[in-house]
């Protein structure tokens, strides 16, 4: 019989006790993964999430659930994920508003950038500068001239204070040196109805709804570096000489801080592969989004870009939402 010294025995017991005391955060391949969506079921982001879950489930050979936690501009869903166990089974379909803008605008928020680990960048989408066709304006230069000659500020629709469209309007006003006034709406549909009825002057929503109403609405530019191949007649904001107005809103996957690196790598690989499939590319095109799939490093870069881009606007305008 092999003899074990008293010291070796005590060391082994202590090692076992320490190991048992450590949080068991390694991914359990028998447990489903939940993707938390901070919006209601049936919407565009929900559709993206369900197709993503289907593809990732096949890649990982795991059951993936989509759970909708809407409300408070994405804060409810983000807060839930920030508090979740970092065991690789909870993900957040986050974006510019629910993550970056909420954190930078709301000092009393229960989460911040340090509460999340980046998992994967998925896609983003450009904004537009759009006017009613009835205004007879066909270019950015004409819009600027019109705004300077008018005796009152132009009205632009937003999704509320601190939204991407609200902040972009502030940037447009400064860049063009023209007075603009934000008008908040519950959704883009309501804003576009007012725009087409002549009760507004400008809108910055995504190109798809604008194109669908092209008889009443005129897209003057996309907030991109280059022209979109699917919209070759619409100039980019950079080619028009305003690169500082290049703007997009992103969507990606985040996890609670402390999620094991191996789990993040596996999930990111599955997500990226899914986004690059023909089915996912089709739904992106149908919704005016652009694939921008990449791992944690790409999403970290995007978060830093948000701090530089949106953070500057928020700071310069002293915007705080309590």
Q: Mind explaining what this structure looks like?
A:
By secondary structure, the chain is α/β, with parallel strands linked by helices. It folds into 2 domains: 33-125 and 249-316, 3-Layer(aba) Sandwich (D-Maltodextrin-Binding Protein, domain 2), CATH 3.40.190.150; 128-245, D-Maltodextrin-Binding Protein, domain 2, CATH 3.40.190. It has 11 helices and 11 strands. The chain has helices at residues 6-21, 44-60, 75-83, 96-105, 140-149, 164-176, 188-196, 207-212, 261-275, 278-286, 296-316; strands spanning 33-37, 64-68, 90-95, 116-126, 128-132, 154-158, 180-184, 202-203, 217-222, 248-256, 290-294. The strands form 3 sheets. A 6-stranded mixed β-sheet has the order 2-1-3-10-4-11, with helices on both faces. The longest helix is centred in the C-terminal third of the chain and has 21 residues, at 296-316. It comes from Advenella faeciporci. Belongs to the UPF0065 (bug) family. This is Tripartite tricarboxylate transporter substrate binding protein. Residues 1-26 form the signal peptide.
